[in-house]
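WARN retry 2 of 3 for item q-0093 after timeout on previous attempt; input resubmitted unchanged.
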Amino acid sequence: MKLRRLSILIPTALLLSACIFSPGETTPLPAHLRQVTIFFTADEHGYLEPLEDGNTTIGGAAGLMAHLVAEGYEPHSDSALLLSGGDMWTGPAVSSWFQGLSAVTVFNAMSYDAAALGNHDFDFGQPVLAANAAEAEFPFLAANLTETESGATPDFAQPYTIRQVNGVQVGIVGLSLQSTPQIVVPDYVAGLDFGDYETALREAVPQARAAGAELVVVIAHVCPNDLSAIAATAAELEIPLLAGGHCHQLTITERRGVLVVGAGSHWDHLIRVDLLYDQETGAVVEQEARAVSNLYRTAEGSPVTPDPTIAALVAEWTAQTDELLGEVIGYTTTGIEVDWPLYNLVTDSWLWAYPEGNLAISNPGGFREIIPPGEITLADIVAVMPFDNSLIDVELTGAEVLENLRCCGGVVAGMTVRSGPAGIAVTLRDGSSLDPQATYHVLVNSYIYQGGDGYLFGTQDPDAYDTGIHWRDPVIEWLRIQGTSPEQPLEELLDDTARN
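OK item q-0093 returned
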């Protein structure tokens, strides 16, 4: 499968140390001192294959597994923990088309011990999440996630788990992003509450200890900066490690004696944490964290041989993806960046496919990937628009259209939006101004219709018409009809004008 292009850089420093512990030292430790090694990744987003930007490559799951083995990791053993900060799937087609199942099988093969639930892990709804949880050979953790009616943890998650590492019973408590309901299709998190982090820790950590945990660590789909804000609580609860995700940050720091780490994204790095635990006193006496890079300069090749077992499994999923989504539907010489040419391509195609629509509005966050140079396949469009949205025909007055543009912005078709001293001015395609009293049919995706990203459409027109058109289908059909080629590449047909 064609490698995707992403702007990535090899960091100049690959070691970020927060303390003085030297793992792997040859001097035997006293029997009461135990080394607990934890490997952590986050925001993998189903990037199972290597990811290349022309100069730099992320080594994918097989490359990361090779680095783990080089660090002494032994799958299916109790010598170390392998943990994730969530957002395991939703990314390239090899993950999104299979609604995360492909990612789960790779996580299983890599022998992950636990994962925090990320917001994107809800992208295909709770039934799919539950099915993936049933397939996973490791638990999904979220101590602050409860059912609204019962107050219980939903069946697809648990607050904590306990694993033995080098003779130490390690409790792993998970946290999910508190703002998940604001950034996920509301129907997909219906009936769920995402509670306060500190409150959840104060409840779950004693429970984990009562169940036998000697040492407790936290994995969270929460930005490291936000985790730093609860370091005082972690220190009080004798939690030595807060490992976070969501913001795609590579970071290692220390707050109140607590390590706070973030592992980047797309398996570009893993964090190795070594804790020296005193079983007599129940305290961590030394600790170190460092980043291990899974990046390399493309021209130089990978410094490690990709793990053959993981590489073979990924190749199986890649072959299935190519079989299902390998149809060539267009061509681009330069590639199409996530910017106005891509925004306009998508929203213009909606109005082309549904002439009853006067205007179109979408959230920029729905566009997840570039279209790379070369032949354009169905898989490329799935990667750009991985979410299962339909197009909704919302009947609004011009004044209601303006309300949405003021509150939430967006990318648009059928109009141009300009801001000035007098406020927002909207010009329609025929050159006339938006009439606040007139009625317009506005095409929006189902995520923002339900209130995603703060849009108001669902309350303005609660009986809007679901067209039943998948939001990426017009893009695919329009591309097929154009017959773009090296002689007439797609970029020559696109409007690159910024519309707001």
